[in-house]
Amino acid sequence: MAQTLQSVEKDFLNYVKKMAHLNEAIGVMYWDLRTGAPKKGATQRSEVIGTLAADVFAMSTSDEMKQYIDELSEPTHYATLSDITKKTLEEVKKEYERNAKIPPAEFKEYVILQSNAESIWEEAREKSDFSMFQPYLEKLVETNKRFIGYWGYEGNKYNTLLDMYEPGMTVDILDRTFKKLRDHIVPLLQKITTKQQPNQDFLFTKFPKEQQKDFSLHVLKEMGYDFEAGRLDETVHPFATGLSPGDVRVTTRYDEQDFRTAVFGTIHEGGHALYEQNISPKLIGTPLCTGASMGIHESQSLFWENMIGRHFGFWQNHYETLKSYSAGQFDAVSLEDFYKAINVVEPSLIRIEADELTYPLHVIVRYEIEKGLFNDEIEVKDLPRVWNEKMQEYLGITPPNDAQGVLQDVHWSGGSFGYFPSYALGYIYAAQLKNSMKRDLPNVDEAIANGQFELITKWLQENIHQYGMMKKPMELLQDVTGEGLNADHLIAYFENKYSAIYDVK
Amino acid sequence: MAQTLQSVEKDFLNYVKKMAHLNEAIGVMYWDLRTGAPKKGATQRSEVIGTLAADVFAMSTSDEMKQYIDELSEPTHYATLSDITKKTLEEVKKEYERNAKIPPAEFKEYVILQSNAESIWEEAREKSDFSMFQPYLEKLVETNKRFIGYWGYEGNKYNTLLDMYEPGMTVDILDRTFKKLRDHIVPLLQKITTKQQPNQDFLFTKFPKEQQKDFSLHVLKEMGYDFEAGRLDETVHPFATGLSPGDVRVTTRYDEQDFRTAVFGTIHEGGHALYEQNISPKLIGTPLCTGASMGIHESQSLFWENMIGRHFGFWQNHYETLKSYSAGQFDAVSLEDFYKAINVVEPSLIRIEADELTYPLHVIVRYEIEKGLFNDEIEVKDLPRVWNEKMQEYLGITPPNDAQGVLQDVHWSGGSFGYFPSYALGYIYAAQLKNSMKRDLPNVDEAIANGQFELITKWLQENIHQYGMMKKPMELLQDVTGEGLNADHLIAYFENKYSAIYDVK
Predict the structure, then answer these.
(1) Residues 226-245, chain A: which have Cβ within 8 Å of B?
(2) Of A233, A300, A379, B284, which sits most exposed with the smallest number of CB within 10 A?
(3) Closest chain A residue by Cα to residue B24
(4) Could you give the 3-state DSSP secondary structure of residue B503?
(5) pLDDT tens-digit series, residues B472-494
(6) Which residues partner with B247 through β-bridges?
(7) Are B246 and A38 inside 8 Å of each other by CB?
(8) Rounded CA gap, A362 and A348, in Å?
(9) Would you kindly state where each structural domain of chain B is located, as residue ranges?
(10) Which of A38, A52, A243 has the CB atom closest to B41's CB atom?
(11) Is A269 a catalytic residue?
């Protein structure tokens, strides 16, 4: 068969486009299931999603895919490819190699294990009984160790897992960075815990749902979220989903006794959504049409949620508006007191409820445990003890039970090891980006106080969003900030902000 | 390969299940596009739908499908199959043969023609210029004639087209039935047009949308529509979609100046939806998990819309409720006057706006034209004249332009010839079913007046719904009514109802 080089490239791009199409269909069904699909159809719908997901997996490991990879990787052929094709090839090759190295029978067994482990974890958490979950977690760790054997690793076994969520990230970098962060946060936190907490009572007064929604929509619009390319819906566990840059949906949850859930949640998901809406349309139909990594994605949501949404200037501009939407709960509260209340720092047990200063410590606990597990320094059976010791060491509190401790997160039950660090990386990246933004836009804080978000959105679009996965996270960071991962900016941000709020230094 | 018979049957059922799963995914995306998907993602989403639809088509005509058909049709093997597999085999075989007989190049050309013809039709209708559409319609008719040549036919070429929408239906049956219907409706209509029309002004007063919605939900619930297996949304062109029996969604449209659009529209789509919700779960994952035919489906929606929703007894029970939801527009209107107003009969130009008595005449006009086209008795170029003559003959009015005449329907532009008769068949079937229901449930009219719909829903479920496509339309009709297609019941219904309303005999 005398195919031209161009025609192989074209066929390959059509092949990956079909995979992207199947993933988009899965995305629509997933969104639908989470926002209002009738419950009696849910089991059947999950089967449909399973069928499509199996198709995508089969395509990613097919002989046809192997042939494309081999033909296009051939040096004289490779040289003729477009940049987008080259990056696409790199991604599918990475996935092909990851999947093809696992014997099919072992992979199948692992999928079943994941599914069973998730059900058992749910029950174990409910009963706060780690021993129920332990044998499953042992198998999950063991299987992932065996997979690392198949995949290979450089430097540290855990690097292979990190690389799945944050390409290029290593234990060396994280050890150095997280140590520095921890060494600054822990003493700062200790100082804060000696101080009197600001009054927060007024936060927990009834704020009608419809008004919360209207205020959330107002802020989303100001952020530059395009409602012709998205929509806001209600769900139990909020998320944003980028089906294509023309259809990026945000979901939120309303708690009438705590408006922060919806308002900060919507801003957070809105940050994810802006990223996906602003990816270059040239990447549609390729695996590159999403964020550069989990950490970079999280940097966008956290930038908006914290660096903007919890910024004093933001509330200088928005507090009166919030008051006008509320049922009067803030009438007797000054802007300063409101600002302090939404920035309270307090050690707590549950990661997803933590404030921005203590959050990274929750992540570091998990990182150290995962690293220990995959380097045979910690055994699964010891996790409850190790968890509680680290919580006491870093946060000064010990969980009263495993449900509020080692069993709180779903991640491990699905075999997602190496994912947690992304959350802390998101904070570090966000602070680095804010610093570079200030270099390029010296008046950025005034812009926030004046509600001129279009400057910020434009800067993020030009420097981050448009590239999708065309740049690796470290490359993106280097290009924008001129440096690699650096916790100094986050540390400076925390010290400035909280020394002012709590009058500590 | 020594496969057991059971394993071939199992593989075949998995193969068709995958097709059903792809169709369900398409259904979710279609519903989403029509109810609230962001417009900037619509083009991309249509491509995704196209990819999945192409997959389903490829599977229906694949070598693998051919092999299943051949192996399972082999008599000793066939004898071992379950009833569901036998019926499934029959359906996929019919489709395989239909698709496989068309040379691929011709099929591809036809798909392009359909797509172009639809765009041109839209423009032609807007400009009311039949000559623009004429060459496309000629090609569509010509291509379908050539396809009939490939497919073959029995008795009449048009039978092959009828069979696609209403299996077993023939020109002989329709000629006889439609003639009888026409011969009764036309003189009845002529008598009615000499009478004074009841007052309808109060119908067109503002009825707030939210209240229309609440009343529609109230009626849907009474009908037995299961909201845990469905939902009601808003759209431009209302429809019901059965994604699976556990997820059957209804959409409607609200016109604040004419509550009938939403109320009768919701009852109509609710009739379709009850059918799909009550199909036996055993048929999930097969092509049999839908209505027996277009006509039988329409019988369900029309039964609820007209035999119930426009029944005097229904309003005896619901008029006060409707009044309580409205903003007072019916306060000075008696039940009798309301009933007459919602049952006004008046010849009109547009099929989809026609009342129940004149509606079948609109269909008969189209039927006679289609039959003439495919038997070379009518030429496309003469359609505007023929259309207008028939409208004058049956309805006593002549369209002032082609937009309100021959160009009004989308069907022909998509190559859907043979579809229109289903609409009139729906009326005829509905009246036959009502008659049999009265035989089994002598107090059915009292039940309607008392709002005891569960009796009716249960009867429909037992006699119609549960079977899905396990029975052919004629078989279903015979089993339930003890007779074949018979317009007498519809004629009797019309004569009874309208002689009372208009005081004619």
Answers:
(1) 226-231, 243-244
(2) A379
(3) A48
(4) coil
(5) 999 999 999 999 999 999 999 99
(6) B244
(7) yes
(8) 9
(9) 5-100, 136-505
(10) A243
(11) yes
